[in-house]
Each structure stands twice: as structure tokens, then as C-alpha cells.
Design brief:
The chain has 262 residues and is an alpha+beta fold. Helix content is 24%, strand content 45%. It has five helices and eleven strands.
Length: 262
């Protein structure tokens, strides 16, 4: 897909605004201190991110985990809730399997939301689709907007803008670990509205380091419905058991309370 003139101008404006955010009131040629003091440029960060992601993907052979899906809907025509616990299994290079352990609450949510989420994740793992959703220059325009240091390590903050509309892409902010060059957090919104009935959606993802890999820890999506309702979906990930290419036996990780992200 070749973007039209309006899309190109929108992306250029986005990148300019993202790069200069926080510089209001300063000299016209200045940048925020968090950018000027960053050890690496945005190109260097993205190059390292792409390289390290590829290395981790090649090394990750297998993992298992437990997930708990929860959805709470408030609004017209009535409130609904549901919860589903799933055992998830991944095998390299692109196979994902899910086994439902328990489910309670609204059958409508279980069948039309939770099970569709599992099907979508299987689809997104397929090689062709996976390549179209990677965080790289082929799929996104990126700008460096900050560099944050803390006792838990340093992170680069990137603004990302999708080059095409897809339910698997997003626009917003991404935090990248300055040592591992892995995504640790995402605050964004979908590149494509998932439904006519959805007015706005917010996405918040957190990742956790398990052995040498950064895997999902918690996802929260809040959707505002045109008729006035609000749906909050959370996914909690726990009990990771990972095998990489250098290990012949499963290494069981502790729960999320024992294994913390940097």
C-alpha cells in the first residue's frame, strides 16, 4: 500500500511533533534534555531493537504460561462480566496452542471476545502476518521522544506511527530497555478501529524478563462504545516455563511476583 499525500503529511507532522515534544518555550533549535542526553540516536535504537528481537526469536524454542482473561462491560443494554483461564503453549517458529482451563460469566463475552482473541493471536503468529506486525521501519515511522533512567535501568521512549491501517498495528509510545533493546511497555491505540460500535480504544501493555526473553506480563485494553458503554479487558500472564536453543530441559520461572522486569 502506497500512502497518499495526506497520509504522508500526517506522518511527517506526527514525527516532527513527537521529536519536539517538551520543547515548547525553548529556543527554536533546542530539543528536550532527555533526548539530547540519550546515548544513542533513534536509528541506533531501532537497529539494535530489530537485531536483538531477531536473535531472541531465533533462540526461543518453546514456552508455556497461564493466562487469565477478564472483561467487564458497563453500559447499554446491560452490564456483563466474564473470566477465562487458559494454558498457552508456543513452539518455534510460529505455533501457538491454547487450552481453556476454566471459564465463568457471560457466554456472549466468552464466545465472541475471548475465543476470538485466541484465534486472532494464532493468526498473528503466522510468518507472513508476523512480518507485517513487527516493530520496525517497514511497518512504522518512529521518533525518539525521551530517555528515562531509574534504579531499575534506563529506557528509550519512542513515538510510533503505523504506515498502514491494521487491527494488529498501533500508534502511541513504546519504552525500550537500554541494555537488552526489548520493548518493556506500550501505551497506544489501535491503528484501525476494531468495530463501528467502538468510539475509542486505549492499549496498555507491560512485559517481563524471563531468562533472556521479554514476554507479556499484563495487557489492559479499554474500549469506549458509541452508545455510552465502556469495556475493560485485562490479560494477566503468569507461570512462564521457557526453553531456549541453548537449553535441553525446561527451566521453570517463578511467578510474576518473583521475576521482575528491569
Amino acid at each position: 500500500m502506497i500512502p497518499g499525500p495526506i497520509q504522508r503529511l500526517t506522518r511527517l507532522f506526527f514525527l516532527l511533533a513527537a521529536t519536539l515534544v517538551g520543547a515548547a518555550g525553548a529556543d527554536s533549535g533546542s530539543l528536550p534534555a532527555s533526548i539530547t542526553t540519550a546515548p544513542l540516536s533513534v536509528d541506533q535504537v531501532v537497529n539494535n531493537l530489530v537485531r536483538k528481537d531477531k536473535e531472541r526469536a531465533q533462540a526461543l524454542r518453546h514456552y508455556e504460561s497461564t493466562r487469565v482473561y477478564r472483561l467487564s462491560y458497563r453500559g447499554f443494554p446491560g452490564d456483563r462480566e466474564a473470566e477465562m483461564t487458559v494454558e498457552a503453549t508456543y513452539d518455534s517458529p510460529s505455533t501457538k496452542r491454547f487450552r481453556v482451563i476454566s471459564q465463568t460469566g457471560s457466554k456472549l463475552i466468552i464466545d465472541r471476545v475471548f475465543k476470538r482473541l485466541l484465534d486472532s493471536e494464532k493468526e498473528a503468529a503466522e510468518p507472513e502476518m508476523h512480518a507485517r506486525t513487527l516493530l520496525n521501519r517497514a511497518n512504522y515511522d518512529l521518533a525518539l521522544t525521551g530517555f528515562e533512567s531509574s534504579d531499575n535501568g534506563s529506557q528509550y521512549v519512542l513515538a510510533v506511527y503505523p504506515k498502514t491501517k491494521s487491527k494488529y498495528l498501533y500508534r502511541g509510545k513504546v519504552w525500550v530497555d537500554a541494555t537488552d533493546f526489548a520493548v518493556t511497555r506500550i501505551d497506544a491505540e489501535p491503528a484501525q478501529n476494531p468495530s463501528f460500535w467502538t468510539k475509542k480504544s486505549e492499549i496498555h501493555h507491560e512485559y517481563i524478563k524471563v531468562q533472556d526473553f521479554w514476554l507479556p506480563r499484563r495487557n489492559e485494553s479499554v474500549s469506549y462504545i458509541r452508545l455510552g458503554g465502556r469495556a475493560t479487558l485485562t490479560i494477566e500472564y503468569d507461570n512462564y516455563r521457557v526453553i531456549d536453543s541453548s537449553r535441553s530441559s525446561t527451566k521453570a520461572s517463578s511467578s510474576n511476583s518473583d521475576v521482575g522486569a528491569r
